[in-house]
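Weekly structure sync, notes
Attendees: PL, DS, HV (note-taker this week)

Item 1: ABC-type branched-subunit amino acid transport system ATPase component
DS walked through the input record. Source organism listed as Streptomyces nymphaeiformis. Sequence as pasted into the shared doc:
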Amino acid sequence: MLELTGLAGGYGQAAVVRPTDLTVRAGEITALIGRNGAGKTTLLRTVFGLADRHGGTVTLDGRALSPGRPELLARAGATLMPEDRGVFPALTVAENLRLARRRDTVPAVDPHTVFPLLTDRAGQQAGTLSGGQKQQLGIARAMLAGRTLIAVDELTQGLQPSVVADVLEALGTIAAAGTAVLLVDQHAGALLDHSRHVVVMEAGRVVLDAPNGPGLRDRLDDLLAVR
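Item 1 (cont.): predicted structure, written out as tokens:
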């Protein structure tokens, strides 16, 4: 379980994320939604030590993690697929996957069964893949590396709806096996069909934190309406 208490962050003196409380529970998918610029990416980067933590705590499986130490989360089995996908362009698809695979973990879903390109293009350099193909490789790497927590920024970016559905089904299986899954996107869309909990950010603050259920879509439509 990932627990954020009063977490605030940004870049240098620029505050982007205001003090935020958030819990991502093991065994379920949490959707973090918000318009572009709402602070979603900076929140993830602050959690993973890639942006400056201005205050608050990050706790993973009961262990408080020091700011600016992304390796601590990696050692604890947490992984982030960033907005730029985080693949190594000079390495092949197979080499990217080999680097991501944890020796102590066998994921509940083999990403090769979700993404045929991992087999078809195993020897191709990742930098020559299309944007959507890099997205698939990045998600596959996260599936292999995340034992306790998988966080994916802009999940649907560059993916066809049919692929999104396959990814969400696979991540649902992984979550059910005991991993906490945090999915970030600008659009609620298909995420609502697979998420147990929904969080909405606006202007660096959480404006909704609720279990998924009847009536939630109407509330989201209002919160995410273009103003």
